Amino acid sequence: MKVALTIAGSDPTGGAGIQADLRTFANFNVHGAAVIASLTIQNTLGIQEVVKIPPDLLRKQITTLLDDVTVHAVKTGMLLDGETIEIVGELLKKYHLTRYVLDPIIRSSTGYPILKKDDIELLKTTLLPQALLVTPNLKEAEALTGRPVRTEKEMERAAIEIHALGPRYVLVKGGHLEDGAALDLLVGGVKTRCFRKPRVQGRRLHGAGCVFSAAITAGLAAGLNVEQAVRKAKNFVHPAIRSAASVGKGRQLLNLTSD
Ligand code: PXL
Questions:
Q1: Cβ contact 253:15 at 8 Å
Q2: Ligand 1: distance of its center to the CA of 42 in Å?
Q3: Is the CB of residue 210 below 6 angstroms from any atom belonging to ligand 1?
Q4: 59-113 pLDDT, tens per residue?
Q5: How many angstroms does the Cα of residue 112 sit away from the middle of ligand 1?
Q6: Using CA of residue 107, residue 251, residue 34, residue 22, what is the dihedral sign?
């Protein structure tokens, strides 16, 4: 049995975070392990509050798990501050977790700020160099590079700049581009790869980034290479976005149910 681990935040709506990651892993037939790094208080209208898990508890969750369980791929999601980032960076290294997908969550889909400027710098120096793949959306690519990222050209430039910070691959996700197809660019292989799907109009979503990076992580755990894992994940996320549904009064959640 292949094992994928998520180190991320809890989202009570089930649409994002740990809850969405585990359901995504299950869809890919890999076993899901989960370490909770933060708790959010939220519904589909937005986040009310975020609370970090105390550092010693975070550390103990990870070391107790990894002293025992063999993990084939890992992703990180919502890490709330520098201390959390440092512990995760140290333990990824200690346990030689090289199939590592970094979802650099800087702000929630509803606009709630997660990482401060100093935390972003720490993420760049301690986590980015260890990542097999980092998956910024346009806003996260802007925060990581300090430049606007609004066009396909700017996406590629940002991907190359982020790649220079040390991750093996960078996937800049263009889901929020103003027009054209939903286009993601993968830099790090022999040449830049483009993944395109028709844009799904008129949906305000919650959790799409989490599900995408979890799907990639599941593919990596199952033995796919990065390019194959991204392609398979994109093919998984697209129909889940097309059939997204409202469970509350706010944003829609991806549909990960089976029929
Ligand atoms: O979509 C980013 C995200 C990740 N993880 C958790 C979240 C959110 C957004 O709300 O709540 C736990």
A1: yes
A2: 9
A3: yes
A4: 999 999 999 999 999 999 999 999 999 999 999 999 999 999 999 999 887 788 9
A5: 9
A6: negative
